[in-house]
Amino acid sequence: MTTTLSPSSGYALNSGSKIPVIGLGVFKASEAEASLAVQEVFKSGYRHVDTAVYYENQSAVAKAVLKAGVPRDQLFFTTKVHPTATSYEGAKEQVAKTLQEIGGLKYVDLMLIHAPYGGAEKRLGAWKALTEAVQEGKIRSIGVSNYGVDHLTDLEQYIKDTDAKLGKGKGGVLSVNQIELHPWLQRRDIIDWCKKRGVLVQAWAPLAQSSRWGDPLLKNIAKRTGKSEAQILLRWSLQKDFNPLPKSVTPARIQQNLDVFDFELTDKEMAELETDEYDVHGWE
Ligand SMILES: NC(=O)c1ccc[n+]([C@@H]2O[C@H](COP(=O)([O-])OP(=O)(O)OC[C@H]3O[C@@H](n4cnc5c(N)ncnc54)[C@H](OP(=O)(O)O)[C@@H]3O)[C@@H](O)[C@H]2O)c1
């Protein structure tokens, strides 16, 4: 597994597509910052960017990605339905708006329902709209974000029922659940659910939003391994088979966050990083 990973490695998604093992997050980055960060990351070897309609920078991100001149099939562009647009009509509009904003990228590699807002009917409506967009070739893979086990179970039932009624695949294929994850928020029930079904878990806030620098747990392992605390957290994420999405607009950090393939945390170090804390920074 992780020992064989490199910056260009990818995880296979349930959709059949491949996603690079680390992606750049651009939440809270202005259009100008996101654009510069994307140019920087593509020089460093990243091929995967995670944005959202909510971040109000997807158009600038797409332009910067295109500027890198990397062949389209080697890029991975993720975006998300705005949390206030979780419904069939809302998600359809979001797909149309996104395709307009990303222009030359032509299609979205992964589109997620950003949050399980609005009740079951609206969530399933948004899923149906994304499924149709996949069938129309506008999106390659679809998934959800901030879903708990109950939301995931409802969605799974809908997919099974729709497949049974209309034919295999018609209910859509769940490839990803993107949730906040770091050693102080481990959400083991959600991870178990996803792993059993081959659903890739993407880790947002893999650096705990900078809230844990200097934590003795982290500091000791960083000192022992000669790596930065950020690199320890990213390694933890990779060794859990997650897909971390570290955000940075600082060139040296961007480079450092991808430089995590020449060492491995031992089983003992991984065990040291097991905590039962429930330190939520974002969606509950
Ligand atoms: N689905 C969702 O609901 C959701 C919610 C939140 C985030 N996300 C996604 O996940 C991504 C990451 O999450 P996040 O932005 O909340 O938090 P994060 O990646 O855990 O932390 C970002 C912070 O860490 C700093 N940083 C980055 N690399 C560093 C390094 N090597 N050393 C020291 N500091 C470093 C960044 O500063 P600088 O930028 O100044 O370098 C920034 O302040 C987001 O950008 C977004 O794409 C998704």
UniProtKB/TrEMBL annotation:
Residues annotated as catalytic: Y55
InterPro entries according to UniProt:
AKR (IPR020471), Aldo/ket_reductase_CS (IPR018170), NAD(P)_OxRdtase_dom_sf (IPR036812), NADP_OxRdtase_dom (IPR023210)
Query: Is the keyword Oxidoreductase in the record?
Result: yes
- Key words of the record: Oxidoreductase
One annotated GO molecular function: oxidoreductase activity
Q: Which residues bind substrate?
A: H114
Which residue positions does UniProt flag as site: Lowers pKa of active site Tyr?
Answer: K80
Entries under Pfam families matching the protein: Aldo_ket_red
Domain spans labelled NADP-dependent oxidoreductase: 29-274
What Gene3D superfamilies does the database record attribute to this sequence?
A: NADP-dependent oxidoreductase domain
Q: Which family does it belong to?
A: Belongs to the aldo/keto reductase family.
Q: Which PANTHER family match?
A: 2,5-DIKETO-D-GLUCONIC ACID REDUCTASE, ALDO_KETO REDUCTASE FAMILY PROTEIN
Q: Write down what this protein is called.
A: NADP-dependent oxidoreductase domain-containing protein
Instruction: Name its species.
Output: Zasmidium cellare ATCC 36951
Upper classification of the organism: Eukaryota, Fungi, Dikarya, Ascomycota, Pezizomycotina
